[in-house]
Amino acid sequence: MSRPSLPIEIQDAKGAYLANPDRRPENPPVPEGDLPVEPPSYMRLTPKQKEIWREIATMLAPGVGKSTDVLGVESLVRLKSKERSNRITAGERGQLIALYGRFALTPSDRNKVSVEKPKQSKLDKFMNRKPAPAPELPAPANNLPA
Description:
By secondary structure, the chain is mainly α. It is built from 7 helices and no strands. The longest helix is centred in the middle third of the chain and has 15 residues, at 70-84.
């Protein structure tokens, strides 16, 4: 079985298209918006599952979770809920770990993703600048009679 392809955002964050920009798809579908912090109401999640959703939504690297990922995150939330209640099977645990990898929630997958730092405004640069070192004054001359 072949390895499943990674999302374009993760490949882009890894720098996969820097060496070969022609390999990037020309018109990929672009999801609208980021993953919501609150789960959609139609999912009918329990309060504990909603808490897990919020936990996962805040842990995702910026730009990884999009609005179209709600179904994958729902599966992740339901499996994580089963794990926390000690009712998970070995097969489900394998699926859970695979979903961790898909959303870059494991250390090895997280290392594959690089996130750009937001640009600083001129005001932020001014406020966070380091002050220039004070000029050194010459040593006072010792003009005292000996």
